Amino acid sequence: MENKKTIKMLVLSLTGECNLACKYCYAAQHTHAFMTMDTAVKAIDLASASGNPFVLQFTGGEPLLAWPLLKNIIGYVQQKKILAIMQIQTNGILIDDAIAIVLKEARVGIGVSLDGRPRQNDRQRCFADGGGASGKIISGIEKLKEHAIDIGITCVVTEQNAEELSGIVEMAYYLGNVRRIGFDLLRGQGRGTNVEAADQVVLTKGLEKAFALADKMENLTGRKLLFSQVERVEKLAKGEICGFAHCHAMNGQTAYVDAEGSIYACGSLIGNEAFYLGNVDIGIDVNKQEKIANYIKESMNFCLRCASFPHCGGACFARWYGSSQQGAYEVECSLKQAAVKWWKNR
Fold this sequence. Notes:
Blueprint: E1 9-13, H1 37-48, E2 54-59, H2 67-79, E3 84-90, H3 97-105, E4 109-113, H4 118-124, H5 134-146, E5 151-157, H6 166-175, E6 178-185, H7 200-221, E7 226-227, H8 228-238, E8 254-257, E9 262-264, E10 276-279, E11 283-284, H9 286-299, H10 309-312, H11 317-323, H12 330-345
Parallel strand pairs: 1-2, 1-8, 2-3, 3-4, 4-5, 5-6, 6-7
Antiparallel strand pairs: 8-9, 9-10, 10-11
Helix pairs in contact: 1-2, 6-7, 7-12, 8-12
């Protein structure tokens, strides 16, 4: 089938397997199969057919469990001179010298998941036996630092760590090679249904402390720490992006491909037939693609009535959908509005 909308983000879930058992993992029920090279090539060719550049993100599960495949995919992109901006989201545990060298040479952007200081992180990011993962994660980040590789950190916020978000700022400056932090709220899929979301008042205070500490550390060290949510506010204010800008899925421009080659509109909604777009063999059903994109926007119309919308870009549909809210998902509104307020005050 012809792909009508230009794909701006292609997400390949290389495997649902993971070496951790995070308490909030929305992907816990994804297939544990491993993607084949044939499936990956078909997906990449689909996304690159327009000739326009796109983000190619590797995820899972833990994508580094599929390292031989990932390495081959990087080689394919380079050999074919495909205009892909490659990124990986990993827990960092498996990173060694060989992996670090390949990722650096291929200019793959690296995001590592870490939820605060070890005490906070280990409450929710742990091994199957309940043991904390902080030590292994930090070792992986330090290995990247040895190779002069800067990273971003994704911090998942729940009621367990919302009050102490300044801890992730402390970790960023302690590690030394963290340049960006993105806060990701709990999603009501997979194991996320068993975890409590952050209280919005607590979240707001936690964010204010984190932003204030980042300002203080920048003044002390001269090193600026970026926040993904604040960067989006700035881009919206400058007109570099506009409208619903939380992610490309809101505009029907994301293709999330699972290990077996099925394509969904969003990674958080994988397995939900209502958001199934097709597969790598037949391509994307453009009618479903348009219908789903319209449904997402119509569902989020309440965002348009909010005074913060021009600087916010709208909420995450998957978070809202998983929360079963009729109106705004107030915890996310608190996150977005805290970022807007901090940007304006600066």
